[in-house]
Design goal:
alpha+beta, two-stranded parallel sheet, globular
Length: 137
């Protein structure tokens, strides 16, 4: 409808949801209450590396993801921090690409500035060795 694309209320339909994840802050509180370890919110069954959904250096023009998140396929209109409503489709989806099950193999958390090469800070430290900025006087 015409009213769904306004400044204060943006609505997206026909978006495939890849993953809905908890914030790292919420996971830490939950782990503290249950005496368990925090698992990264970007880990998958194929890639068990403990890492956060925020790429190294943060997302361009956004920063760190501190709250719960929703990973969708494709692009999303509007400025980075404006709220967007996702609503169900009006028609029943019958195409194969909409009905197939999603199984994420890896979430790319390399830097989005320049040529990102490392997925985690630990991986970068192991490759680069001890840097001058890491030495404490």
């Amino acid at each position: 409808r015409r009213v769904h694309g306004g400044y204060h209320q943006r609505t997206e339909i026909n978006k495939k949801i890849y993953r809905i994840g908890k914030s790292v802050v919420g996971q830490r509180e939950e782990a503290k209450a249950n005496d368990t370890q925090v698992k990264g919110n970007a880990s998958t069954s194929y890639d068990p590396t403990v890492k956060d959904i925020t790429p190294m250096g943060g997302f361009p023009h956004y920063g760190e993801v501190k709250n719960d998140y929703c990973m969708i396929k494709g692009s999303c209109m509007g400025p980075k921090k404006r709220i967007v409503f996702l609503r169900k489709t009006l028609l029943v989806q019958t195409k194969k690409r909409w009905l197939e099950e999603i199984d994420l193999k890896m979430v790319d958390t390399s830097s989005k500035f320049g040529h990102g090469r490392f997925q985690t800070r630990l991986e970068k430290r192991n490759f680069m060795g001890t840097l001058k900025k890491d030495i404490k006087l």
